[in-house]
Amino acid sequence: MDALADLEAYIDRLDGKRLAKLDQLIAPQLKALWLPDPRNKPQCQAYHSRADLMLYGGAAGGGKTDLLLGTALTQHTRSVIFRRQATDLGDLEERLLQIAGRDGWNGQDKTLRRDHRMIEFGHLEKPGSEFTWQGGLGHDLIGFDEGAQQQRHKVQFVLGWLRSVDPKQRRRAIIGSNPPIGAEGDWLIEWFAPWLDPNFANPAQPGELRYAVTALNKEGTTLWLDGPAPIVFETETRYRLATSEEIAANAEGVVTPLTRTFIPAKLVDNPYLANTGYRAQLQALPEPIRSKMLNGDFLAGREDDACQVIPTAWIEAAQARWTSVPPRCAMTAIGVDVAQGGDDRTVVAPRYGGWYAPLVTRSGKETREGADVAGLVVKVRQSACPVIVDIGGGWGADAMAAMERNGISCVGYMGLKPSVGHARDGKLKFANKRAESWWRMREELDPGQDGGSCIALPPSNKLKADLAAPRFEMLARGIKIEDKDDIRKRLGRSPDEGDAVVMAMAEGSRAAAQVYRRQNQSASRQSQANVGHGEAKRRIGL
């Protein structure tokens, strides 16, 4: 053990020239043309990763090109590495010849053939260029150098021919990339959301393997699964676990999840470039390109969609205000988004005035019956507060009936019902109740209102993503929020946490005000007219 530590310490003291000489000496003994530098830990981790699809890099200078070439030269038999355009292939060719020499290289075809290996260079520049890579024997390694410059649909198409006629040959895809400069490469954030998207509900560690499938919708939405169990799609985005009989029979429609991972690497990780002055060049870049290239920040300079209903910064501010101690007021209302069976979840959102308690969630399989949902609400409910139940999809009706049989005051919520309300400016109207409810949530979170916002939301990445997801448009009949199915396609799941919170705020305030009026008949007419403000607001937590 001490001898190994001494050897590692010796290697760490070698400069780049001596390390290159050492590589030349040991490579023949290991029968390898290339090996990852042991000091570049991210590159070593990526080289040995078992992921089916990997994103590597993030920052400039992390050794992306070498990883692609070295992996092709040592672990695969048929490889292809893409750049966006033909003029970009020169750097790949130069580095390959430095490593492997010219034996077997065909400069016209951009192909190296040696022994049992073949490495091709390609580009996806012209419209339809992806179709030229269709069919044939396929490739057991497909790599993309600077993947953020590629178009999503082209990458997705080419990956369809990741295969090998040798069942023992490993198949993998590697995307080496810096963060996208423009919106074209934003698809990488969806493909690797557990690592790159701060709104993702269940973040992953660098190098951790996660299971995913591609939905059947036109967008090819990524769906993240809990494990490797095969699934069968029931709709474009909804699925169930495949039965043992279907798996054994290799039945049509059975989809096997594949693993993905992201391994970040920066200039400082690469001993061959870290001390060359390249860092100073990156530091001279303007923001946000500087942060993207130097720090690998995929989100630097990103902005909300122009038609996003609730700005992300407002949601983050509300989560920053949250504390684990509820305010000294009664529970105001509970919003319930019901899932009876299926892959969605039942979500119970209790609020105390502007403060939301941690959301209570159960899988649809745990709340198959209305009584199951009612039992969940009974455990959470306090102060005889009203319960708002989404009955628009038909799932909530049984749950609402079960609660009413148990003496729980309920309000049925149907987002498609007409709205007679107006926005705070008194001018804007709403296409339906759902648009009104979401806009009320926006107004309550607005930090520019008198006194600022008092909403405090629990720190849930999924809730943040749900609330930031909806987009709106202005129609002649008023504000319209995009359909829930469209949101589901973009998120790959139902925005159930956001829906429950919004119902508890908009419809919950109205229901709580009605309860207050019934309990305080002696209050003045003016106080009743202004319920939800002043002393009335403090007493019922509005």
Overview of this protein structure:
There is one protein chain. The protein has 542 residues and is of the alpha/beta class. It has three domains: 29 residues; 218 residues, 3-Layer(aba) Sandwich (Rossmann fold); 229 residues, Nucleotidyltransferase, domain 5, CATH 3.30.420.240. The chain is 35% helix and 18% strand. The chain has a ten-stranded mixed sheet with strand order 3-4-5-2-6-7-1-13-8-9. Strand 6, helix 6 and strand 7 form a beta-alpha-beta unit. The longest helix is centred in the last third of the chain and has 24 residues. It is elongated and about 90 Å long. The C terminus is likely disordered.
Topology of helices and strands:
Layout: H1 2-13, H2 16-30, H3 41-48, E1 53-58, H4 64-75, E2 78-83, H5 89-100, E3 105-106, E4 111-114, E5 117-123, E6 141-145, H6 152-158, E7 172-177, H7 187-191, H8 193-196, E8 210-214, E9 222-225, E10 231-233, E11 239-241, H9 244-248, E12 254-255, E13 258-265, H10 278-283, H11 289-295, H12 312-321, E14 333-337, E15 345-352, E16 355-356, E17 360-363, H13 370-380, E18 387-390, H14 396-405, E19 410-413, H15 433-445, H16 461-468, E20 472-475, E21 478-481, H17 484-491, H18 496-519, H19 525-529, H20 534-540
Parallel strand pairs: 1-7, 1-13, 2-5, 2-6, 6-7, 14-18, 18-19
Antiparallel strand pairs: 3-4, 4-5, 8-9, 8-13, 10-11, 10-12, 14-15, 15-16, 15-17, 20-21
Helix pairs in contact: 4-5, 13-14, 15-18, 16-18
